[in-house]
């Protein structure tokens, strides 16, 4: 979506308004501020293009490189809601697309912070392949040290003679408990993974409806309600805009 397209649309619909000059000035300010609230870490943004709908293939790249000035963004959209004369389908779409995608990326980031080891999160977020390889090697080294530590512990908690053979021949309680706890931990990790994966799938499917600027407001309202059942609370401005349009 370009600034030129938006200004043309707003100019046409305010043609008979005696305050057109003021409204166009407000619209241009809102559009400019929307654009500056979007930040690409690698400077990817193109001045003429404010925003394009993001595909699922963009998700990883955007998570690593895209951020939003949230306070500025919310201030701009609140200002937009005060001027119904400049409301149009294209600008509505732009705002909804940005807000919903921002919330999707925030949810993705929150889940990864909570579920990933810090070193893996940092390396994945950086997008630096060398950093990622070093982080994985570090984690593998720690894993080997943990295994060695458990072997040493087991060797001193089995019945005499204290050897690895007795661990498997007599199956003492300590390694059995360790195996049970490990399997339980892995099971919980799998359940959490499935739950988080389904949650994110619902969020990004909600966003996907905006791939066409002529989207259905009633349909997006239903998708927002569905995602709420999974525990998602969207930005309040999204609900305000949907309520005003349905």
Element order: H for helix, E for strand: HHEHEHHHHHHHH
Q: Output the structural class.
A: mainly alpha
The largest sheet, given as strand count, sense and whether it forms a barrel, is:
2 strands, antiparallel
Provide the gyration radius in Å: 26 Å
Number of strands: 2
The percentage of residues in β strands lies in: under 5%
Mean pLDDT, to the nearest integer, reads 84
Task: State the helicity in percent bands.
Answer: over 70%
Strands of the widest sheet, in order across it, are 1-2
Shape: elongated
* Count of discrete domains: 2
Q: End-to-end span in angstroms?
A: 23 Å
Number of helices: 11
The low-confidence runs, each spanning 5 or more residues with pLDDT under 50, are: none
Keywords: Membrane, Transmembrane, Transmembrane helix
Could you walk me through the main structural features you see in this protein, from its secondary elements to its overall organization?
The chain has 246 residues and is an all-alpha fold. The protein folds into 2 domains: 3-115 and 199-245, no CATH class; 119-171. The protein is 72% helix and 2% strand. It contains 11 helices and 2 strands. It has helices at 3-13, 20-36, 59-65, 70-81, 89-115, 118-126, 129-155, 164-170, 173-208, 217-229, 236-245; strands spanning 38-40, 66-68. The chain has a two-stranded antiparallel sheet. The protein is elongated, with a radius of gyration of 26 Å. The chain crosses the membrane at residues 140-161, 167-186. Keywords: Membrane, Transmembrane, Transmembrane helix.
């Amino acid at each position: 979506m370009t600034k030129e397209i938006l200004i043309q649309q707003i100019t046409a619909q305010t043609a008979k308004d005696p305050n057109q000059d003021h409204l166009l000035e407000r619209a241009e300010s809102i559009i400019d501020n929307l654009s500056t609230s979007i930040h690409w870490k690698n400077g990817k943004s193109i001045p003429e293009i404010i925003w394009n709908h993001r595909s699922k293939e963009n998700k990883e790249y955007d998570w690593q490189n895209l951020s939003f000035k949230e306070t500025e963004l919310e201030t701009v959209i609140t200002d937009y809601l005060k001027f119904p004369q400049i409301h149009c389908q294209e600008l509505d779409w732009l705002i909804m697309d940005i807000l919903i995608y921002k919330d999707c990326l925030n949810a993705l980031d929150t889940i990864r912070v909570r579920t990933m080891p810090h070193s893996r999160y940092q390396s994945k977020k950086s997008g630096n392949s060398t950093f990622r390889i070093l982080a994985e090697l570090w984690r593998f080294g720690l894993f080997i040290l943990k295994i060695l530590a458990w072997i040493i512990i087991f060797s001193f908690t089995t019945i005499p003679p204290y050897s690895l053979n007795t661990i498997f021949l007599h199956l003492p309680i300590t390694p059995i408990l360790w195996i049970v706890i490990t399997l339980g931990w892995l099971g919980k990790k799998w359940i959490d993974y499935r739950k988080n994966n389904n949650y994110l799938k619902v969020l990004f499917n909600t966003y996907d409806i905006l791939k066409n600027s002529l989207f259905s407001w009633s349909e997006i309202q239903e998708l927002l309600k569905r995602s709420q059942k999974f525990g998602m609370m969207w930005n309040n401005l999204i609900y305000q805009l949907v309520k005003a349009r349905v």
